[in-house]
Every structure is written in C-alpha cells, then in structure tokens.
Amino acid sequence: MIGVALMCVAAALVLVPLGTGPLDRVFGARLAGPRAEDQIQVNADPHATATTFDMMAACLRGGLPAGAAASAVSAIATGTASIALRTTADLLTLGATPDAAWAPVAATPEIESLARMAARSARSGASFADAVAELAEAERARAEDSAAAAAERAGVLISGPLGLCFLPAFICLGIVPVVVGLAGNVLGGGLL
C-alpha cells in the first residue's frame, strides 16, 4: 500500500509543472516588475471611462462648447485620458481644426471613440452630447460583459486545481484498493 502511495506522489510531481507555484508567481512578478500590458489594464478602467463620457455629455448638454467641456472633464479623467482631453481642450481653445484638435484623444485607446464621435458631429452637425451619452452606455455594457466573462473563466479555471487535488486521492483511495482486491481474488483463486 505504501508503494502505491509513493507511485501516486511521483505521478503528481510529474504532472504538476514546476516553477509556476504561487510563490513563484508572487515573487517572480515583483522581481520582474509590471509588464506593459498590465499597466494598460490598470489605466483602462471601463467604469472610469464611462464616467468620463457621462461627464462630457452632461457638460455638453449644459451648454458648454466642446473645448470647455473637455477641459472640465480632464480634471476627473484618469491616466492618459486626462492628458489627452486637456491637450484637446487647449487645441480647441487655440482654434485648431476639429480633426487636429481631437487627435490626442484619438491616440488614446480607451477614449478614442470620443474622437470619432467628435469628428462625426463636426462634419454632420449631429448632437455630440447624445452620441457621448451613448458611448457611456456602450462602455458600461462592455464592462458588464467583460466582468461576466471573467467570472465564467474563473469558474472554469478553478476546476483544474480541484481536479489535481481530488483525482490522485480518488485513484489512491477508490480505484487502487478495488484493483488490488480483485487482483488478489483472481490471482489467489488460480484463475491465471
């Protein structure tokens, strides 16, 4: 029976990859520093982006011109969105063309759709405030979908470690004794 337990432990050591344990993940990440894609995820909070769009729509509905609204919203925006909105506000105040003024916003991934809406509004005369409010709704819906997908992924990913914990125990405590008992009966009974 001890031999079977040792075989199960050896099989578990072969099946579990080394170097990806919790301590390696924690300390390895600290030593290597944050990766660029991790920093992008930190700055790209979908709820903050939706709030930025809502504030922009409120300012525009309140009667502020696009430049003044961008300047006001830049104070509450986060990360690179704040800098891009401030630059756009300054360019609009100086009298730049809409395409040139909204270029910094277009270069910022989390709010680039705002630049597209501003360009469309400048060309067609469509309501910029309504378009920005729709952007906020779409951003919230995307954040909700992303959170639901992450929760579903977590449910699937947890089954792997649980399987690695329970499968060896099931084999050692459930299957091996049955096979040993049957083998004893078959070999002891002289069938083979």
Automatic annotation (TrEMBL):
InterPro entries to which the protein is assigned, alphabetical: T2SS_GspF_dom (IPR018076)
UniProt keyword annotation of Zinc present: no
UniProt signal peptide: none
Chain ranges passing through the membrane: 166-187
Keywords: Cell membrane, Membrane, Transmembrane, Transmembrane helix
Domain (Type II secretion system protein GspF) ranges: 54-172
Topology in the lipid bilayer: Multi-pass membrane protein
Compartment(s) of residence: Cell membrane
Domain of life: Bacteria
PANTHER family for this protein: INTEGRAL MEMBRANE PROTEIN-RELATED, POSSIBLE CONSERVED ALANINE RICH MEMBRANE PROTEIN
Protein name stated in the entry: Type II secretion system F family protein
